[in-house]
Amino acid sequence: MPRGLFITLEGLDGSGKTxxxxxxxxxxxxxxxxxLVTRQPGGTATGDRIRxxxxxxxxxxxxxxxxxxxxxxxxxxxxxxxxxPALAAGQIVLCDRFTDSTEAYQGGGRELGSAVVLELHxxxxxxxxxxxxxxxxxxxxxxxxxxxxxxxxxxxLSGQDEGRFEQEQxxxxxxxWQKYREIAAREPARVVLIEGDLTIDEVxxxxxxxxxERLAMLATGAQG
Length: 224
Fold this sequence. Notes:
By secondary structure, this protein is of the alpha/beta class. About 60% of the residues lie in helices and about 10% in strands. The longest helix has 25 residues.
């Protein structure tokens, strides 16, 4: 059985990733492609517990290295339990965040640097790379405003607190935003950068164009 396709969505909180990953899953289904949707941190029972710890605003004394180690613990579990089995079964996996997020948030935002993130990815994740990464980069201000409003609404409705990162200063997010741009420049064959304050439909159009191209390449390779 041919190996599946691994697609990740990246960007700041508030960039529209959740909306777009769900729209992409629907688009794929209408064209006869099943898609497994997962997220990081989370996506497994262990990962959901890690997510609750890392994103809770009450986790105030979490050291940057400890934060990064937890992200990789979550990722290792997700790869073993969800991602690799699905890819081996020929499925399309859509993942909301992967190691690019760790490089951007911990490597850039926490100023730990890219080298340690990439080395840990090589060791812990066997250097598993997405076939395609869709990087959504609207303006920094628009992303932050949306993320902070969303987390306030979610906390009010469910009592679930995932606002720890939104408490960071804007300088932190400027470093994250810039690191994402560095990743896109470094890996243009993998990362499709979708930037600017576009409408939901405009972003979706760019996403499906990129995914359709990868699917066509996959089909050609299978036939060859």
